[in-house]
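Input/output pair, single chain:
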Amino acid sequence: WYKDFWEYDAAADKWTQKADYGGDPSTNVSCFAIGDKGYIGTGYSANRGWVKDFWEYSTATDTWTRKADFGGSAREYAAGLSIGNKGYIGTGYPPNLSDFWEYDPAANTWTRKADVGGPARAYTVAFSIGSKGYMGTGAIGTTNLKDFWEYTTETIVCLPPSSLVVVKVTDSTAKVSWTLPASAVEGLVIRYGAVGSSVSTNKVVRLISSSATLKGLLPNTNYRWKLSSLCADSVLTWVAGTNFTTTGSGVATSSSDLNITINKEMLIRPNPNKGNFTIQLHLPEAQVATMFMLYNNLGTKVWQQDAGKIGGALHRNIVLTNELANGIYQFVIQRTDVRLMQKIVIRK
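Output:
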């Protein structure tokens, strides 16, 4: 009987010992994982025989916390699996068992579900794919089994968030908030990008939250954003929030005093390029002070050039500094009457 616990790093192909299992030195336990938490319980204890205690492991703190005892009888040789944000343990010994239990980590409760199909057994193998669970094989005493069963959870409606609001905006960030749906979700995903641009960014909110901060935005730029719930084996249903415009001075604004920025496409050739390219477009006729700027994908301005007072047809060669690294950038033409932007790729 042991209680040591080890982490495997696939990238480095190495094992690291972590905090010992929170229960007794045990054998034939059952386990599953939900998100960034691991769960181990049941088994045969060196001190107490068959047990039903149940423990949660936190990868963030390398600690164990005892949770509500397993809902069924004390046992060993049970099988565990997880589907979405719920865990399941079923079958085992003694005697040969077929009961199947669901664990809800949010409520820290166990609920008995439909028994595993076929005869009662121990030594079962279990896993999940999407929203389905699978159990099979195992043995009754010395008689081995090869039957295999699929478990379907109750139908869960994956509702999207509601009441999307832009709370606070600066020149490079925007804090947005929403109301979580009543149905259980695994997480949320936010998609945002500049209006008029085909480029967008996905931000996954794994921990259930009612707000997030979008970072790396360009100043004085009009942005669109939308939000969807993440549910097991479910198609994303998007809900759009109100467009917002970042400031140009680093001063935060609220959603009530945002200004709309005009965005248009410009012709850049070649693209990708080595930092030397030609821009071609038609500006408003007024001779207005104009600035050329370049931002990296973190929203940091890395180059700027005063273009003087220009207007009308524009055809100009741009030579950027050689210190710029390969990557995706936003080329911006800034005037008092219009702001134009286009993605460029530098590949030296």
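The two ends are 60 Å apart (CA to CA). Confidence is low (pLDDT under 50) at residues 249-264.
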